Amino acid sequence: MKKILVDDVVMQEACNIADGVYAPLKGFTGKDDFESIATHFRLTDGRIWAMPIILDITREQKEEIGDNDFIIENREGKQFYISKPSIYKIDRDRMAQALYGTTDKKHPGVARLYGLKEYFVGGNVDRVVGREFKNTYPYYKTPAEMKEIFKKHAWTHIVAFQTRNPPHRSHEFLQKRALAQVDGLLIQPVIGPKKEGDIKDEYIIGAYNILIERYYKKDTVELSTFHTYMRYAGPREAVFHAQVRKNFGCTHMIIGRDHAGVGNYYGTYDAQNIFKRFREDELCIKIFKYNNVCYCKKCENMTPDGTCPHTDDDKVFLSGTELRRRLIEKEEIPDKFMRKEVVAYLESRKSIFVD
Ligand SMILES: [Zn+2]
């Protein structure tokens, strides 16, 4: 059996497939499904799926494998079995345009697509007995485990919150607004490769633990992780994120403005409007479409965008860059923007940023 050494990202994607995080997918995306996903947001059988799950290989690896089943393996010797492989190439310009709406290589998702190896492989993924790769991150739960936890809570309506940041007051506001309409909240940070200057995963988790303990009613919140890389595909990624949360047992999901966006590639509400394409009964998850909220000094209240007559100067808002600067220099961060306990926690830790 031929073995191909793969990186952590590919290994984790295979694990997601095997765990049912990417249901209904049973394997890496083949050529026809890739085309169909990019064009229609659907698999060739018509079911909704928004992002291809890619296994990329070199020309040499392609020649080695031929048409045969093979093994992907990481440096620790953990494996997955890839059966019925189909090897293909894509037109990267056309696919970047379809998936990301741009071929601009300054877009991190597009840059990643262009940086992948020459060939892609579709094929079913199975665990290899004795050499199983498992996601052992302490906060990770498989979809089956997560559903079991929801069942124990007797929650039937669960809203998911996707994040890659420590909690802001605005996030807390939106989460509680949603929580008031359902039984439970799943806060699920994306864990994976990050951009320089992002806050490290462990500190996002740590900050949330503090917030949940002090400011959320007991037994209304679960904190768990979703392990993948950010595509920054904006609206398309919002659909992908929603399908994944459905697989974890959530019935609702919060989609804010510019969900999973980057730069100015997507319109402010594209990630909400995209859901109009799908019937609710085929999405199997309902979307809470929320505007941004900020504390307004004149209203003396958290106010959703576009609901009060005051200007941006009246709003307590820090950009990501400004928040980072103040955390590093230990300058004041308004309590109306981020809870003081969260700020104190982040400031008490050394090197919280990815470098
Ligand atoms: Zn106001």
Report on this model:
Helix content is 35%, strand content 19%. By secondary structure, the protein is α/β, with parallel strands linked by helices. It folds into 2 domains: 3-127, Sulfate adenylyltransferase, CATH 3.10.400.10; 143-294, 3-Layer(aba) Sandwich (Rossmann fold), CATH 3.40.50. The strands form 3 sheets. Strands 1, 2, 3, 4, 5 and 6 form a 6-stranded mixed sheet that branches. Strands 7, 8, 9, 10, 11 and 12 form a 6-stranded parallel sheet that branches. Strand 8 (184-191), helix 8 (201-215) and strand 9 form a beta-alpha-beta unit. Helix 8 runs antiparallel to helix 13. Zinc ion (ZN) binds next to loops.
Quickly describe the structure.
The chain is of the alpha/beta class.
Could you give the topology of this structure?
Layout: E1 3-5, H1 8-19, E2 27-28, H2 31-40, E3 56-57, H3 59-65, E4 70-73, E5 79-88, H4 92-100, H5 108-115, E6 119-127, H6 143-153, E7 158-163, H7 169-179, E8 184-191, H8 201-215, E9 221-223, E10 226-227, H9 235-247, E11 252-255, H10 270-273, H11 280-283, E12 286-289, E13 293-296, E14 301-304, E15 315-316, H12 320-329, H13 340-348
Parallel strand pairs: 1-4, 7-8, 7-11, 8-9, 8-10, 11-12
Antiparallel strand pairs: 2-6, 3-6, 4-5, 5-6, 13-14, 13-15
The structure holds zinc ion.
Zinc ion binds next to loops.
